From TrEMBL:
UniProt xrefs under Gene3D superfamilies: 3.60.21.10
Pfam family, one: Metallophos
GO cellular component: cytoplasm
Superkingdom field: Bacteria
A molecular-function term among this protein's GO annotations: phosphatase activity
The protein's name: Calcineurin-like phosphoesterase domain-containing protein
Coiled coil: none
InterPro entries referenced in this protein's UniProt entry, alphabetically: Ap4A_hydrolase, Calcineurin-like_PHP, Metallo-depent_PP-like, MPP_PrpE-like
Occurrences of domain Calcineurin-like phosphoesterase (ranges): 1-194
NCBIfam families per the UniProt record, alphabetical: PRK13625.1 (NF010148)
CDD domains the record matches: MPP_Prp_like
TM regions (residue ranges): none
Source species taxonomy: Bacteria, Bacillati, Bacillota, Bacilli, Bacillales
């Protein structure tokens, strides 16, 4: 299996286009296609960036033709709940996606809603691929959660190993689960922005903060090659996590 797994896009269409071109994908059909490879997405397609709806449509088209694998992120989950009519706070990036939707006609809005809800509802919480050698999960997964799908697993793959405590800026305190992971599947995840792809044991975090002015990063599997393009967004240093 040959797959290029892309970190959190957050509506950064320009970076997504540039990265797939760099990876050798052809856009002549209006979305990126490779004759030998597929794309993978670690979730958080939308929010904060300028082109969330465009990203939804492209990923849905790829997924619908079985040209890509997708797993939901916490921002995906929040947008899904918004589309369901649940009471969600239109903050922390969702406001940019909602603004795009409000600028649409009702027909256009329903078009994006239908695509996103199908993508979300018909995709697993995490993907186990390549004869169980590769696993894609938005915020990662503990070894003993692999193969399970209960509520605690969902919380972990969407939000990470949260303690229930908060940092001074209001962000959740998360344990560095990757340091304890000793499982066999190689885990590719995102969720927590880091300046460079972070390999720890049998895991890699490829969220390099495209929407915060960092980079958009892909992991080429099975080559284990990291490919990145610079962001066009302003750099926000406090959004990037550093580890001891």
């Amino acid at each position: 299996m040959k797959i290029d797994i892309i970190g959190d896009i957050h509506g950064c269409y320009e970076e997504f286009y540039n990265l797939t071109i760099k990876l050798g994908y052809d856009w002549s059909s209006g979305y990126p296609i490779h004759d030998q490879r597929k794309l993978g997405f670690v979730g958080d397609l939308t929010d904060r960036g300028p082109h969330s709806l465009k990203i939804i449509e492209i990923v849905w088209k790829l997924w619908n033709q079985q040209l890509a694998y997708y797993v939901p992120g916490n921002h995906c989950n929040k947008l899904y709940r918004y589309f369901l009519g649940r009471k969600v706070q239109i903050t922390h990036g969702l406001e940019t996606t909602v603004a795009e939707l409000k600028a649409c006609t009702n027909k256009e809005e329903n078009h994006y809603k239908k695509m996103f809800m199908q993508l979300y509802e018909e995709s697993p919480l995490y993907q186990v691929l390549d004869h169980k050698k590769l696993l894609i999960a938005h915020a990662g997964i503990k070894e003993d959660y692999i193969g399970k799908f209960h509520k605690s697993v969902k919380t972990f793959v969407l939000y990470g190993d949260i303690t229930g405590e908060k940092h001074e800026d209001g962000s959740p305190v998360r344990r560095d689960w990757a340091k304890q992971y000793t499982g066999k599947p190689f885990i590719v995840y995102g969720h927590t922005p880091v300046c460079e792809a972070r390999f720890v044991g049998n895991t890699v975090n490829i969220d390099t903060g495209a929407v915060f002015g960092g980079q958009l990063t892909a992991l080429r599997y099975p080559e284990m090659e990291v490919v990145s393009v610079p962001s066009s967004m302003p750099f926000v240093s406090e959004k990037f996590r550093t580890f001891n």
